[in-house]
Write a structure and sequence with these properties.
Elements lengths: L1 E3 L4 E4 L7 E4 L2 H11 L3 H11 L5 E3 L1 H14 L2 H12 L5
Length: 92
């Protein structure tokens, strides 16, 4: 299972990745899932992210839903920060 820290999310501000800012993206991303994804699994995931503290483990299904929502609705700087967190972890 992968760990993602939405509380300390790095969002890149340029394509060179020389600059970024850290922010607490829990509520923003949880609201995005709550509003844009359907089903009880999406509901549970939204609340899991909203209530998370620091690095939190996500199942492969949750990780896939997170990636899909991010790729469909988020800016590239957020997507790159998310992919960086996921990519730094060893493959299972």
């Amino acid at each position: 299972m992968k760990k993602i820290d939405f509380q300390h999310m790095k969002i890149y501000t340029g394509v060179s990745h020389k600059t970024a800012h850290a922010c607490d993206a829990r509520e923003m991303f949880a609201d995005l899932i709550y509003q844009q994804a359907g089903g009880i699994r999406a509901h549970a995931l939204a609340f899991k992210i909203y209530e998370s503290e620091g690095e939190t483990e996500y199942t492969p299904d949750e990780e896939e839903m997170i990636k899909e929502i991010a790729e469909r609705h988020c800016i590239p700087g957020f997507i790159d920060g998310l992919n960086e967190q996921i990519g730094k972890q060893p493959k299972e």
